[in-house]
Amino acid sequence: MPSATIQEYLEAIYKLSLKGEVRPTQLAEVLGVSGPTVTATMRRLEAAGLVTRPDGGLELTEPGRREAIEVVRRHRLAERFLVDTLGLPWESVHEEACLLEHAMSPRVLEALQHFLDDPSVCPHGHPIPTADGILPTPAGTPLAELEAGAEGFVVRVSEDDDEIVAYIGSVGLVPGVRVHVLEVAPFGGPMLVVVPGAEHAVSREVAKSVFVEVATGGGEA
After folding, report:
1. Deepest in the core among 58, 96, 166, 205, taking most CB within 10 A?
2. Phi, psi for 191 (deg, rounded to 5)
3. Cα(165)–Cα(16) distance, rounded to whole angstroms?
4. Hey, what domains does the chain have and what are their CATH numbers?
5. Tens-digit pLDDT string for the chain (221 aa)
6. How many Å apart are CA 146 and CA 207, to the nearest integer?
7. Of 59, 100, 108, which is closest to residue 76 (Cα–Cα)?
8. 3-state class of 134 per DSSP?
9. Dihedral Cα 150, 153, 155, 159, nearest 10 deg
10. Helix, strand, or coil here: 153?
11. What are the residues whose beta carbons fall under 8 Å from the beta carbon of 173, sequence distance 6 or more?
């Protein structure tokens, strides 16, 4: 099994690659390390056949991608355990899961998945890869892209920022909740949304972190 550091790099590259081309400067920012540290680690990953560096960017090889997806699986199952079994708040489990994901043997991982009754998504709504390395395409459209009158169910939220996750939870925009867009302010202004029992004005920055499965036809609340 690769070291915890290697696993963290592979996981970070994979997640960044979902948004487009990955550059070393992005990786340094996400991991909170220096440029020279990233460069040195990339040499190790390249020598191990886990990444390539086309035109100064970073791409996972197939073995690198498989290992990254396995780390994602460990992380998301760990989050489920921390929330569902230990009762920790969903906004605070990301860092704890980062520690656990490197400590689980394959045997423990399989036992944990069975204990949790084979969950399909993490507490934030992101799909959990299968044991065969299949990672379903994440569902949902960013709330920030919806127009007034649209409605649907929250299916996942980005877990990149703990403060935003905590705020999203505080206003009830959690996976499984029905949301209706009442108003969209022009020029990037806030959105007025309705969740069961409440109305909230949320910024576009927050709305970009909430993904909604839009109801067919949209329409009235």
Report:
1. 58
2. -110, 135
3. 19
4. 4-60 (1.10.10.10), 141-214 (2.30.30.90)
5. 678 889 999 999 998 898 888 999 999 998 889 989 999 999 999 999 999 988 888 999 999 999 999 999 999 999 999 999 999 988 888 889 988 988 888 999 999 999 999 999 999 999 999 988 898 888 899 999 999 999 999 999 988 778 899 999 999 999 999 999 999 999 889 999 999 989 999 999 999 999 999 987 544 43
6. 9
7. 100
8. coil
9. 70
10. strand
11. 143, 154, 157, 179, 193, 195, 200, 202, 210
**Which tokens sit at 84?**
């569902």
Pairwise CA distance, residues 10 & 182, whole Å: 41
How many angstroms separate the CA atoms of 38 and 34, rounded? 6
213 with 150: CB under 8 angstroms? no
**Token couple for 116:** 């949790």
pTM of the model: 0.85
In this structure, the strands spanning 151-157 and 210-214 are: antiparallel
